[in-house]
Every structure is written in C-alpha cells, then in structure tokens.
Specification:
The protein is of the alpha/beta class and about 300 residues long. The protein contains eleven helices and seven strands. Strands 1, 2, 3, 4, 5, 6 and 7 form a seven-stranded parallel beta sheet that branches. Strand 5, helix 9 and strand 6 form a beta-alpha-beta unit. Helix 1 packs across helix 2, helix 5 runs parallel beside helix 10 and helix 9 packs parallel to helix 10. The radius of gyration is 26 Å and the shape is globular. It binds zinc ion (ZN). Zinc ion (ZN) binds next to strand 1. Zinc ion binds next to strand 1.
C-alpha cells in the first residue's frame, strides 16, 4: 500500500517532468519546489493547446492556471522522489495483529491478567526484570528504544525472547512522532523494527509511540498496532520504589496494561517485590500479545493507540 502510493506519486512526478520536457523547458533545472511549481504550470497549457487549438491559446493558458491547483501532489514528491528510504516496512496481514502462535497455554479463563510493559530499554535492568519474570513463570512486553542498543545487550535481548517475553518497537530516537515528518516517522519505526528483526528473526512488533503521542498522520503511517497503557506506574514522574510498588499492588485491575520503564532500577526492584503479591491476588503477569490472545482482542494497524484495559 505504502509502496504503491509512493510509486504512484513518483510516477506522477515523472509524468509531470516529462510534460515539462516536451514543452519549452530549459529553465530552472533543479530548484526543488520552484521546479515542481513550474512543471505543474506547464502541464495545463500544453493540454489546452492541443485540446482547443481553435480558441486563442495564450489567454486561456493564463486564464486557466487556477484549476491547476489540483495536481498539488507535486508539492511533496520533489524531496521524496529520490531517497525512498523505507521500502521494507512490513505490512501485517489483513491489518490485524496475528496472535495465533502466542503461547497462552498456562493461562486459564479464570485468571486475572495484567500486562506489564517496560519502555526505554535495553538497559542494565533487563537482567533483574527477566530474573523476576522467570522465577515466577510470568512474561512481559519490552518496548525498545533502538539507538539505546549496543552489542553489550545482545545476549540479554536474546534472553527476553527465549524466555517467552515479547519485544515492542519504541522508535529509534524517541521523538514525538506528531512533531516530525512522515519520512522521519517511517524511518523511526523501520530502523528499530529491522534491528529487532536482526536480533530475534521476527519481523513484526507492536509499537509504543514515545509519550503515547499519536495523531491522524501517525496512525496513517504506522503499519503496526500502537499500544499505550491503561495504568501509568508514574515511575518517570518523580517515582520511587514505594510509589511503584504501591501502584502495582493496590491499583492494578484485571485487564490492565501497565506503563513502566526499564530505565529505573527502583522500578525493577518494585516489580520483583510486587509480583508475588499480585500472584497471591490471583493475577498472572503477561505480555500485551498474550493478554490480547487470551481475551480475544483483535489489534489493528493504522489505528489509534490502545489505551484501555482488555477485559473478557
Ligand atoms: Zn519512552
């Protein structure tokens, strides 16, 4: 779809260039927008000239340019024509998140479920988080901030996957996706997606937009489901071990998706101590995809970020 669209736009652009060539060109060879504007103008006069040879061509040529406003698309293709930076963006089948091979074998329908999500990794706290999850046979989703990765995290990243957890895409450099260009949005998503593919062999990952921030343009361009949260641990907001522990043990409800950050040691410590309390209350800690699979929730790409509990 995306490729089709950009091919179409590139084609349109080429067509216009050619139309420009066949006329009286030779002026302003490559001045970006200017060049585009000129070729757009030359297109209609040419057509008018051949379509209505009888009527005085010149006046109509200058009288009609107003309708030329339609081929607007020329405004954008100019910069896009050459780079075409992200042709490999994976499209998920039917626009729906596939949970068919997500393991939910040890989740029973009576279990209360809570999805733990850890943003802004990889960090040195992954080890503690993984140790805790493994100890209790629980799982979580780790949203990766691509440019925080370095080789020293390679092994622990493999651990995340091998122990049944899930990676998500938290962009490459953590910008507000609402404040950057479409090409930059695509690049932010694709760079981290392909890093995660390199490490895990998987191609598709849920996306958490930095700051939970998305708008119509972001929705249109992010070809994966976006996941926000239903409960914020607030660890990022002057959080402490106590505040996170209290949130986890007192505020969690069935179906919650909890926002936490792998960047804080106190969060990892609070998680370690809160999990047995949650288990005592009948909870299982799961990844976002496990929560969706267990509850029959279908996630869609190109949609607003999910930001609510997933109950039965
Ligand atoms: Zn973040």
């Amino acid at each position: 779809m995306l490729m089709k669209k950009s091919l179409l736009v590139a084609g349109l652009f080429l067509a216009m260039l050619c139309a420009g060539c066949s006329g009286n060109n030779s002026n302003t060879p490559a001045t970006g927008n200017d060049a585009a504007g000129i070729s757009a103008d030359t297109v209609t006069p040419e057509i008018n000239a051949t379509a209505t040879p009888i009527t005085t061509p010149e006046p109509t040529a200058t009288a009609t340019p107003a309708p030329t406003a339609t081929p607007e698309p020329t405004a954008t293709p100019a910069p896009t024509a050459t780079p075409e930076p992200t042709p490999t963006l994976a499209l998920i089948a039917e626009n729906e998140w596939d949970v068919s091979d997500v393991d939910i074998s040890d989740i029973s329908p009576d279990d209360k479920l809570v999805a733990f999500t850890f943003d802004d990794g990889p960090t040195e706290n992954y080890e503690v988080l993984l140790d805790t999850l493994k100890e209790y046979g629980m799982h979580a989703t780790f949203f990766v901030w691509g440019n925080r990765y370095s080789d020293k995290y390679h092994d622990v990243m493999l651990r995340v996957i091998n122990e049944g957890n899930e990676f998500g895409n938290h962009t490459w450099s953590h910008p507000y996706l609402t404040k950057i260009s479409t090409d930059e949005v695509l690049e932010e998503i694709e760079k981290t997606r392909s890093l995660l593919e390199e490490i895990t062999g998987k191609r598709e990952f849920l996306v958490r937009p930095p700051y939970g921030s998305a708008n119509a343009d972001v929705k249109a361009n992010v070809y994966f489901p976006m996941i926000n949260w239903s409960l914020d641990s607030n660890d990022w907001n002057n959080g402490t071990y106590e505040s996170v522990y209290e949130k986890l043990t007192e505020k969690v409800q069935d179906g919650d998706i909890i926002l936490m950050h792998a960047s804080y040691k106190f969060t990892a410590d609070a998680v370690r101590d809160a999990i047995p309390v949650l288990i005592e209350k009948g909870y299982r800690i799961v990844s976002v995809s496990q929560l969706c699979a267990a509850r029959g929730k279908v996630l869609k790409a190109n949609a607003a970020p999910l930001g609510m509990k997933i109950t039965g």
